[in-house]
Design a protein that fits this description.
By secondary structure, the protein is α/β, with parallel strands linked by helices. The chain has one domain (about 5-290). Helix content is about 15%, strand content about 45%. It has helices spanning about 20-25, 60-65, 290-300, 305-320, 325-345, and strands at about 35, 40, 45-50, 75-80, 85-90, 95-105, 110-115, 120-130, 135-145, 150-155, 160-170, 175-185, 190-200, 205-210, 220-225, 230-240, 250-260, 265-275, 280-290. Strands 1, 3, 4, 6, 8, 10, 12, 14, 16 and 18 form a 10-stranded mixed beta sheet that branches. Strands 2-5-7-9-11-13-15-17-19 form a 9-stranded mixed beta sheet, with helices on one face. Helix 3 (about 290-300) crosses helix 4. It is globular, with a radius of gyration of 20 Å. About 45% of the residues are buried.
Length: about 350
């Protein structure tokens, strides 16, 4: 289907309830603007090639819109000896867009850093983890504080494969993330961790879908959002277990830390379980900073801002503690520490 033929999504659809399509679109909703390609560079251990495989998941307005921006389409290949690859993307101009595909045929970790001063940025990432592979993907949003950002991801995990996804959202002004994973074969598993730092007037919306399409599959989702000033974080999680997917184990946990009276956070977990013999659970909690923790840290010589920053860092770091990949945890936590130190110096 063409974007011009699509109806605008209704806010009754929870995917667009908190961030309506017109608020994330780069221009008026009738237009598909010209976009500058995101510029990619990477360190040793991988290579980029033109083109991506056909993808059958382009069934919603965001993915179709991104596909029509005529952005460059690139695939990342990892060398056999590489344990970790860093991919850097820069978005510039009025509108920047990219399409990235990763096929994991071996155990490795890829960390994607996205930065730049673009007014609007759009990125669609697709990928698959082949049988018996252990893969890790880190995504760090370091865009300008004035950038609107639309991000879609589609992942497929095959037999006895494990995918770990870690997202750190610290950049951009208004961000819409639609992240979907399909566990398509017995023994496939997903661990997904997302940490959001809300500051100033940031609006960060994460919609996460995890689909257990067969039995004997596992997933674990943790979302931590620390919101300060007038920021707003929204996290919606849809966890589905198909009728034949017995012996599946799935959980999702949302935690929000509210640091000011004007900050807001929503957490909306959803379960759709059609099988009988499964383990599925979810939970959500929001709370302010514990004044006893602030008092304890300040009594040991820290100022109020330093004590608050330390609590934020511990809270956000904890979101990644369920991951197994040491390389992935170290990279994401290092970037978070640098970000919070820079925020404290402002």
């Amino acid at each position: 289907m063409k974007y011009s033929k699509m109806e605008l999504p209704s806010r009754a659809d929870h995917l667009w309830r908190y961030t309506p399509w017109k608020r994330i679109h780069p221009t008026s909703v009738e237009q598909v603007p010209k976009a500058i390609p995101i510029r990619w560079s990477l360190n040793e251990g991988g290579s980029l090639s033109d083109g991506v495989p056909d993808h059958s998941m382009n069934d919603d307005i965001a993915r179709i819109f991104l596909s029509e921006l005529r952005s460059e389409k690139v695939s990342l290949s990892v060398d056999g000896s590489a344990s970790i690859v860093h991919l850097h993307g820069v978005a510039s101009g009025h509108a920047a867009a990219g399409r990235l595909h990763i096929d994991f045929h071996q155990d490795t970790t890829v960390v994607i850093h996205l930065s730049g001063e673009a007014d609007w940025a759009g990125l669609h990432i697709t990928g698959s983890v082949q049988a018996n592979v252990r893969a890790g993907v880190g995504f760090v949003n370091e865009l300008s504080a004035n950038t609107k950002f639309l991000r879609c991801e589609d992942w497929i995990v095959e037999r006895d494969a494990r995918l770990e996804l870690a997202s750190l959202s610290i950049g951009g002004f208004r961000c819409k993330n639609d992240l979907r994973t399909r566990l398509n074969a017995t023994g496939s598993s997903l661990k997904q961790a997302i940490s959001v730092h809300g500051h100033n007037q940031r609006h960060v919306d994460h919609h996460i879908e995890i689909h257990h399409n067969v039995g004997h599959t596992d997933s674990d989702l943790h979302v931590h959002a620390a919101c300060n000033d007038q920021s707003h974080s929204i996290s919606t999680g849809l966890l589905t277990i198909a009728e034949s997917a017995n012996q599946s184990d799935a959980s999702q946990v949302f935690k929000n830390l509210l640091l000011s009276e004007r900050s807001r956070a929503e957490a909306i977990p959803e379960l759709e379980v059609l099988a009988d013999d499964v383990s599925a659970n979810h939970g959500a909690a929001s709370s302010p900073v514990d004044p006893d923790q602030i008092h304890y840290l300040m009594s040991r010589g820290l100022g109020l801002e330093e004590a608050t920053a330390l609590i934020i860092e511990g809270f956000m770091q904890d979101g990644f503690s369920m991951l197994k990949s040491k390389e992935l945890i170290d990279e994401i936590r290092t970037r978070l520490t640098v970000h919070l130190e820079c925020e404290l110096k402002r």
